[in-house]
Amino acid sequence: MTMKKHITGTIAIVAIMLTACVSRGASTDKTLVSWVNLIDKSVRGGSAISVQSGIEFDGIVFAEREKDKWMAGSDYFLRTRKKQNATPVETTDAKTLIQMAIVYKGDQLSIYRNGELYDSYNAKNVDLLSRKDNFVVFGARSVSEAGSIGAAIEDARIYSKALSVEEIKSLEPNKESSISPYAWWDFEGNKVVDLAGRYPRSELRKGARLAGGKLILEKKGMMVARKMKQPAVKHRRIYSRAKKGTYRVPPELVNFKKTQSRLQVINAKEFGFDERKWQSDPSRIIYHGGKYHVWMIDGFVNGVAGTSPANWKQQVNLKSSWILYMTSKDTVHWTAEHYLPLGPKGSAYDLTIEQADVLYHEGKFYLFAEGWTSNIEKYGQMNAGIICLVADSPAGPWKQAGDVLVKPAVDRKAWDCGMTLNPRLVHMNGKWHMYYKGLGWKKKQAETENGLAIADSITGPYTKYKGNPLLRGHGHFCWRYKHGMLMLPFWTKNILWSQDGIHFSEPLAAKSNELFLFGSLYLPDDPSCGEPITDKPVTKYWGLESRKVEGSSWDVVRIEWEFGAQEENE
User: Fold this and answer.
1) For an engineered disulfide with 214, which of 133, 152, 185, 235 has Cβ 3.0 to 4.6 Å away?
2) CB-based burial of residue 317 (10 Å sphere; 0-12 exposed, 13-18 middle, 19+ buried)?
3) Is 445 helix (H, G, I), strand (E, B) or coil?
C-alpha cells in the first residue's frame, strides 16, 4: 500500500464510535473513523461516514441540527443529542485535514475531535455491524440521500469495538493500525477499495469523485459501499407472501419509474405557511367541484413545532390540529385553505390529528387519521387510535363517526400495543380493508410494522386480521388496480401486488433511484377519489410526496408515477 506524504497541520477527525445495545447476543460497540478536509462548510446535514441497515444508521454528521457543529447522526435522532449548545463550533479551514472521533460503548456515546473529547452522553445504541444487510454511506447521512457534506475524505474506517482514547490518538491516515478494522478505505491510487475486504461493491453517485487519493464529496455527492448487490433498503420483509403462480402480476408492474417537481403554494406568505419547515404525509387526493383537494401535516401550525412528544400537550391550547387543508385547479399551484379543527375537550382528538387519508363514498367525505387525546383516563394513552370524521363537503364541517375504529392492543406484548397510525383504505371483494401502521410497547419508530383491519361498512366496526402484521415498514400508500390492489411501502423503491388484499407478491423494484417517501397518488379511475375522470385502466399517475430537505425538515413535492407499456388484450 502506498504511503502519502505527511500533511502539515494534520488534525485527526476521529469518526464516530458507535456502540449499540446488545441485540441477538451481539455487542453493539463499534467505532467509525474519518479523516476529512471540510472544503465547503455551507453544505449541511451530510456524513463523513455512516453505517446503515434498513432505515437505522449511525454516522459522523456535520452541521445538521446546528451550523458548523459535528454530531452523531442517527435515524430519527434516536442516538443524537437534542441540544448542542455546549459543543464547539468547527473553525478549521479547507486546507486542514481533521480527524473526528465518537465512541459508542454500551449505552455511552462519546465524540472526539483530534483525540480530544468533543461531546459525551448516554444513548440507547443499536447493533448494526452483525447484520448481514448493512452497508456504508459517504456524503448523505443515509441512503435516503438526506443531507450533504462538502468534504474531501482522506481515510475512513469502521472498527467493531469501542476504541480507547489512546487507540484513537494512535491512528494515522493511510497507515495500518495495530487493531484490525472492520472496514477501511484509504482511496489511494484514486480507487475505491475496502482494504478489509468486507464491502467489495461500491457506487459513486452524482457529486462524488476521486482525486488526489481522496473521495471528493460536493453538494449532493454520495458514495455507497455494499457487501453484495442488493437494494439499498432491504428492511421491508414480507410476512404474508403469495405462492408462486397463485396470482398473475400485471406485466406492466415490472417496469415503472418516478419523477418529481416543486410544489407551489400561491398564498404561502399570506397564510403563514412555510414549506421549508415541516410539511409531510399528504392524504389521498380528491377531485370535486372542479378542484383537487388534499390534507397534510403542517407541523408548525400556530407557531408550535409539531411531530414531537414534547409539544403534544401544547396542542391542548391550540384552536386547530396539524392537518392543513389545501386545494388546486391545476395540480401545481395550491392554495392553503384552513387547518382542521380539533375535537372537543376529552375527545379522541383534542390534542391533534395526524396522517390523514380521505375518501369519497356515497356522496360523503370520510377522513381517517390517528387521534391524539388528553383524555388518557378514557383511552389509556395519548394515542387514542385511528378515528373517522365525516363531512358533506371537502371543506367541512367534520363530525366524528363513532369512537376509535382501530385501537392500540391492550396486551403489552402485541405488535401494535404502543400506537395505531397511518390508515390507508381500499375497498375490494365487498369489504373495506384498512391498512395501518403499528408500534409495539417502548419500540422505536424504526421498528414499526403494518397490519390490516377489515369491515363491511366504511365506518366499521373493524376487525383486526388474525395474521397481522403483514409486513414490516414505516407506512404505505395503496389502491385498487385491475383485479387486485397495489401497495407502495414508504422508504423503498418497491411496489407490492396482491389479489386478495392479504397475500402480497415479492417486491417489484422501480427503475428510479428515488425512494417513495410518505406520499399519495391521484387515482382518476377510482370513485374513492371523488368524481372519476376516466373509466379506463391508468398506468400514469401524479401525486404528492414528502421529501427530506436541508437540515431536519420535510417538504412536499409533486411526483409522477408511470408503469411500463401494457400487453395487448390485458
Assistant:
1) 152
2) exposed
3) helix
Question: For residue 310, how many C-alpha atoms fall within 13 Å in the half-sphere facing its CB?
Answer: 3
DSSP-derived pairing of the beta strands 419-428 and 431-439: antiparallel
- 33 pLDDT above the threshold of 60: yes
Which run of H or E residues covers position 309? helix 309-312
Highest mean pLDDT among 141-155, 159-173, 244-258, 433-447: 159-173
Q: CA 193, CA 148: separation in Å to the nearest integer?
A: 22
What confidence tens digit (pLDDT) does each residue in 197-206 have? Answer: 999 999 998 8
Cell of 236: 421491508
With CA atoms as reference, report the closest residue to 437 among 467, 472, 411. 472
How many residues comprise the chain?
570
Contacts of 30 (CB under 8 A, 6+ apart): 17, 18, 19, 20, 51, 58, 104, 128, 129, 158, 159, 160, 161, 162, 182
Task: Tell me the C-alpha distance between 459 and 117, whole Å.
Answer: 57
- Distance between CA 367 and CA 386 in Å, rounded? 10
User: Could you give the C-alpha distances from 352 to 210, 384, 472, in angstroms and in order?
Assistant: 49, 11, 26
pTM passes above 0.70 = no
- Quick one: 410 exposed, middle or buried, by C-beta within 10 A (0-12, 13-18, 19+)? exposed
Mean pLDDT of the chain: 81
H or E element at residue 478: strand 476-481
Q: How many CA atoms lie within 13 A of 143 on its CB side?
A: 28
52, β-bridge pairs: 57, 135
- Residue 26, classified by CB atoms within 10 Å of its CB into exposed (0-12), middle (13-18) or buried (19+), is middle
Judged against a pLDDT cut of 70, whether residue 194 lies above it is answered with yes
Where do the domains of the chain lie, and which CATH numbers do they carry? 20-226 (2.60.120.200), 251-563 (2.115.10.20)
Beta pairing partners, 353: 371
Q: In Å, how far are 12, 269, 271, 382 from 266, measured between CA atoms?
A: 48, 8, 9, 35
List for the chain the helix, strand, coil content (%; round to 5). 5, 45, 50
Q: Identify whether the C-beta of residue 29 lies closer than 8 Å to the C-beta of residue 161.
A: yes
Closest CA to 528 of 479, 475, 477: 479
Only one residue has cell 494515522, namely 172
What mean pLDDT do residues 83-101 have?
A: 93
497: which 3 cell numbers? 401486488
Is 492 in a helix, a strand, or coil?
A: strand
DSSP string, 251-299: GGGGSEEEEEEE-EETTHHHHT--TTTBEE-----EEETTEEEEEEEET
* CA dihedral (108, 113, 119, 123) positive or negative: negative
Pairwise CA distance, residues 350 & 342, whole Å: 5
Between 492 and 96, name the one with better pLDDT: 96
CA 238, 241, 245, 250 dihedral sign is negative
The cell numbers describing 79, all together, are 442516538
